[in-house]
Amino acid sequence: MRYRKRTRNLYDPDSKEPFAVSRSRIDRFMGCPRCFYLDRRLGLDRPSMPGFSLNNAVDALLKKEFDILRDKGHSHDLMKEYRIDLIPLQHKDLPIWRDDIYKYVGAAVLHKPTNLKIQGIVDDIWVDKNEVLYIVDYKSTSTKQEISLEDEYKQAYKRQVEVYQWIFRQLGFRVSDTAYFVFANATKEPDRFDKKLEFKLSIISHEGDDSWVEPAIYKIKECLDSDEIPEVTPDCEYCGYSSSVNLVN
Question: What DSSP state is assigned to residue 146?
């Protein structure tokens, strides 16, 4: 099996230009430095996955719903239900941070010691009366189980918002350790489909700790600068795949 390498968006150790590292690629590195290196340094990405069209539709509709309240400076009934005394943030750069213009950058900050530009696309930001920001992420699911953040794969959710917290602190904002996840859970209770899905909304909070982010950035820089491919990560299902393909120019 032969796999043609990507030739764009690759890290060049000799380049003086800042190199962009997205929030998702930071999470990739945390899970498997080898997969990260093959992607960002050698152009061999993991096999692509189908897009999550329904999840994206829910995200878009939630943004529209909160934008109506944002324009009015009002809180959402769901926030009131959970006794969250905040309102959706109104800020001129919010369309950039949410990537409403689809440049796939979002909120970005240059980490000068490594010359890496750390970036991430947020779903929403809420704010309190003291202008402290609260990172918010929308999640879609369909389950009868109680919604929680304790599943193994949901640890990536926590890292996600913690990277956002770190970015906005570097941008000079006061950011709360508390982040919120708005879960839209599609119910299977109705007897008929009737051309619509019904969702139950809930909010789960997470007390973030972004102290791991900057040390990870230094490790990412060290990884990218190396000419040695990292060792196979034992529990990474993609490492077996990448080891079996031939890289071609």
Answer: P
